[in-house]
Design brief:
Elements (H helix, E strand, L loop, with lengths): L1 E7 L6 H13 L5 E4 L10 H5 L7 E4 L6 H9 L6 H14 L5 E2 L9 H9 L4 E2 L27 E4 L2 E3 L4 E2 L1 E2 L2 H25 L6 E5 L40 H16 L5 E3 L14 E2 L7
Parallel strand pairs: 1-2, 1-10, 1-11, 2-3, 4-5, 5-7, 6-12
Antiparallel strand pairs: 6-7, 8-9
Helix pairs in contact: 3-5, 6-7
Length: 298
């Protein structure tokens, strides 16, 4: 069983934490897929750490360009003309790494509209990991979108040549925000449930998301960027329910302990190995996938 460990990078991260997370995983013998907004490719603090990722055995995937709600809205509902940032991101990737990206994840796992899917196909992406099947929309950053609520739980062909590898999910994604909210014991119980599912159905690939700061026991504590108030309990179109960010563990040492528990649980699966998302594109190890039936003729 292949386990896909993914690490999302954001502008608010400390640039050095990107390098520390990459080194930690490299020393542990784990190749991960780092999803990076391409705006950081030219950032003087982030650029040297991001450029080192392939040499350390990691894949660099696209996480959009600016990773903001303008891009999220365009990915969900925009026309092709509103998706130029995807083409710009693709070009910056080529300038930085001398090749083309294979994997894509939308900011905040937002659902992809037909124009966005077609643009990804046109740009040559082969794997998408934006889907969070059966995630509760109310707890997402886009609560009034369907947030992949009825998406397939296993591998499927999102479009011809574009494989959907869902982030493991059941009401909540198997991801850093969930783990830090549930705390260690409940987080590991939740993860074991998803791993049990993956062992029973061969088309289910455990795909877990973490953040670079999760690997750094002395990471800088980042308080919420707003104050808790009545408005925090009202779902916003862009941002969702903000009170949830106040529920997460913030002590870096406890965050690191939760991360170690997640890695140990993943590593402990019999017959499993860590792999990058690009390995799944065209891999003979997976069962035949099913096409979603999206009509691209219009």
């Amino acid at each position: 069983m292949l386990i896909a460990l993914t690490v999302d990078v954001h502008e608010e991260d400390r640039p050095t934490d990107v390098g520390r997370a990459a080194d930690w995983l490299h020393e542990a013998g784990i190749g991960a897929t780092f999803f990076v907004p391409s705006a950081l490719f030219t950032h003087p603090g982030f650029r040297p750490h991001i450029r080192r990722l392939p040499a350390l055995g990691h894949e660099v995937g696209s996480h959009g360009h600016g990773h903001d709600f303008t891009e999220i809205r365009a990915l969900m509902r925009g026309a092709a003309a509103e998706l130029d940032f995807l083409r710009r991101s693709h070009a910056l990737y080529a300038e930085t790494f001398g090749g083309a990206p294979v994997s894509f994840r939308s900011p905040a796992w937002c659902p992809l509209g037909q124009a966005a899917i077609q643009t990804l196909v046109d740009l040559g992406y082969r794997v998408d990991s934006s889907a969070t099947p059966q995630r509760l929309p109310i707890f997402s950053s886009t609560p009034y979108a369907n947030t992949w609520l009825f998406a397939r739980r296993g591998l499927s062909e999102l479009a011809p040549g574009l494989l959907e590898v869902p982030t493991s999910c059941l009401l909540l994604p198997a991801a850093s925000p969930t783990f830090l909210t549930l705390r260690r014991r409940a987080a590991l119980a939740f993860l074991r449930l998803l791993l049990w599912e993956a062992r029973r159905w061969p088309d289910r690939v455990p795909c877990v998301q973490l953040h670079v700061g999760d690997f750094v026991p002395d990471a800088a504590v980042q308080p919420p960027d707003e104050r808790l108030g009545l408005s925090s309990f009202v779902p916003r179109r862009d941002g969702g329910l903000r009170f949830k960010v106040f529920l997460r563990e913030r002590d870096p040492r406890r965050v690191y302990a939760i991360t170690l528990g997640v890695i140990e649980a993943l590593r402990g699966q019999p017959g499993s190995r860590f792999g990058m998302l690009r390995e799944l594109a065209g891999s003979a190890e997976i069962a035949p996938v099913q096409r979603r039936g999206i009509d691209f003729r219009g």
